[in-house]
Description:
Elements: H1 2-6, H2 20-37, H3 46-59, E1 67-69, H4 76-83, E2 88-90, H5 95-110, H6 134-155, E3 162-163, E4 169-170, E5 180-182, E6 191-193, E7 199-201, E8 208-215, H7 217-220, E9 227-232
Parallel strand pairs: 1-2
Antiparallel strand pairs: 3-4, 5-6, 7-8, 8-9
Helix pairs in contact: 2-3
Bound molecules: S-adenosylmethionine.
Amino acid sequence: MLFAQLVDDPSARPEEFPTEEAQEVERLRLFGIIEELVKWENVTNEAVIEAARAEIRRCFDGEPPAIVDPFAGGGSIPLEAQRLGLEANASDLNPVAVLINKALIEIPPRWAGRPPVHPDDGSTLGNRTWAGAQGLAEDVRYYGQWMRDEAERRIGHLYPKAKLHDGSEATVIAWIWARTVTCPNPTCGATMPLVRSFWLSKKKGKEAWVRPLVEGKAALRDEVWGRVRFGPGS
Length: 234
Ligand SMILES: C[S@@+](CC[C@H](N)C(=O)[O-])C[C@H]1O[C@@H](n2cnc3c(N)ncnc32)[C@H](O)[C@@H]1O
């Protein structure tokens, strides 16, 4: 879309393409660039992107305009603008969108071609070169893993493994967080989770839900408050 907006149709350059036929030939050549540009497998094909950049530069005497996307969302427009060699500016009302744009457009070029900064034990990095954002990506992977390991070490005990029917254990892949209140019923007093729905999946054939089970009923008579745990639905 950016390419089509910025590159002139050949009919706008009659001195170069004086006849309809000549314009059509040139138009088809430009369409060919778009056809190559939109192919997913060409995302990192430098020759294809450079051909598009060259056409844009030609239409602006080497000085293409800056692109501003005030409602950038996931950042696809400024990202593509940057890939096409244009100065890209983005903003959004939503701070998550701003963070995505920063991570996608602003930060990677700053570290382009640089090696990672994490302490290398020599086994993973070796003597290699770091093109584009590869060094930054290696650091994100390394420190992401470090944060994951550290979180597991400090709070992993709060997220125990699930016991399966056959007695084996499995890692829980998602936890549902809920606020709790003390049940105001004086004969209950259980710690109640505030949950909007007990459905986990309503997909046809994969229906699954949890069933709230009040624990500690016997203890309640001794005024030890119960709590709700969840068991599998049936
Ligand atoms: C449809 S999305 C944009 C999608 C984006 N063009 C893309 O291709 O990924 C619209 C965005 O506009 C943002 N937005 C809505 N009202 C806004 C405002 N007044 N100022 C800035 N951003 C706004 C929303 O937060 C949302 O991220």
